[in-house]
Amino acid sequence: MKGFFSATGSLVLLLIGSGPVLASNLVAEGRQDAMLECAACHRVTLRQTQPASVPDPDEGRAVTAPAFDVIAGRYAGRPRALRAFVQAPRHPMREQQFLRRDLTAISRYIASLQGQRW
Predict the structure, then answer these.
(1) What is the largest CA-CA distance in the chain?
(2) What's the CATH architecture for 23-112?
(3) What is the pTM of this model?
């Protein structure tokens, strides 16, 4: 019986202690997803140079997509609004079709940049 309680206690500690690790893994996944899906138009990391402006056919001019640190600042403390923005952004950016986990990961990555200025 003693071994059972010891093993159970270890399992509980493992599950409780894994929260930040899982969250940081999701942020890392979000960074990777953003590099693949968003970096053509947005600056998604500090070391990336700002991509070229993109055409806005309605305005008849090119616009610069906001860097992720700017987006993070706009949605600071509003994770649901950030997630909604990533999924259905403003024109001229098209609506995104991310899997739920990828949407969560990218949103968490952007949120992790709050307070940073590049």
Answers:
(1) 75
(2) Orthogonal Bundle (1.10)
(3) 0.76
